[in-house]
Amino acid sequence: MRIIPADHITETVRDMCINANCLLPEDVQQALCQACKTEQSPTGRDILDKILQNADIAREKYMPICQDTGMAVFFVEIGQDVHVEGNLTDAINEGVRRGYSDGYLRKSIVSDPLERKNTGDNTPAVIHYSFIQGDKIALTLAPKGFGSENMSAVHMFSPSEGVEAIKQFVVDTVDKAGANPCPPIVVGVGIGGNLEKCACLAKHALTQTKPNPNPYYAEMEQELLDRINQLGIGPQGFGGTNTALAVHIETFPTHIAGLPAAVNINCHVTRHVTEII
């Protein structure tokens, strides 16, 4: 049994919060550069160029890429041969508290959804736990701004509606979102499970960097990306051929009577960082 002190997790999370908000992920950087080469709209190319310049300045000055430094969302994989010395949830939240304070990141979380009093430290985080083999802990942080989160959607389809209904649902959700999520966007799609599981799948899909390993879903990802980019929304909603940088799909077994689907949209920053302890 490997023992990991809670303080080590806290310091790791602190650094993750700052890095995720200041350093554009490499996969997103490459996608934006490619979009800049292929964008047919002069205005769109200019916007993409400015987005890349903004990311360079954030990296050089080690300051947030976007003023909305998001709600801290974690996916935590815990090895079965690991023992955390202390409370893991408390350790993660303390890391968020330190990271958002030390990094001068905007605190955006309110303690009650209706009373709206700010917690002052961007806690609590949203944490999804899963258990795996081994003696390590994998922490993935995806700070989520709500300009894009508010444009997301869940729909409970009947099985008879089939795949075409889901595809149209994804495209319609992006079309309805328009410029609100700061395109070019990344689109996470969850299919299967139940109401909450498909939403979680869509959120986790936003942390992926490669096409789905199943050729059927990889082809669907590409088809949806093509259809979304034909909408003409373009960079920041000013028109163009690059409305989305990528579409990622995750699936899970579901009930014989159901076909849940969720769409989680992310802005052009699509922050995500993973650390293994």
Determine the mean pLDDT: 97
Shape: globular
Low-confidence stretches: none
Q: What is the terminal separation in angstroms?
A: 14 Å
Number of continuous helical runs: 8
Strand order of the largest sheet: 4-2-5-10
Q: Order of SSEs, N→C?
A: EHHHEEHEEHEHEHHEEE
- Rg measurement, Å: 19 Å
Structural class given helices, strands, pairing?
Answer: alpha/beta
How do the helices and strands line up, and which of them pair or pack?
Elements: E1 2-5, H1 6-22, H2 26-38, H3 42-61, E2 73-79, E3 82-85, H4 88-102, E4 126-132, E5 137-141, H5 146-149, E6 153-157, H6 162-177, E7 185-193, H7 195-205, H8 215-229, E8 244-254, E9 259-266, E10 273-276
Parallel strand pairs: 1-3, 2-4, 7-8
Antiparallel strand pairs: 2-5, 5-10, 6-9, 7-9
Helix pairs in contact: 1-4, 2-3, 6-8
Task: Explain what the structure shows.
- There is one protein chain.
- This protein is of the alpha/beta class.
- The protein is 40% helix and 23% strand.
- It has helices at residues 6-22, 26-38, 42-61, 88-102, 146-149, 162-177, 195-205, 215-229, and strands spanning 2-5, 73-79, 82-85, 126-132, 137-141, 153-157, 185-193, 244-254, 259-266, 273-276.
- The strands form 3 sheets. It has a 4-stranded mixed β-sheet with strand order 4-2-5-10, covered by helices on one side. Strands 6-9-7-8 form a 4-stranded mixed β-sheet.
- 42% of the residues are buried.
- The model has no long low-confidence stretch (mean pLDDT 97).
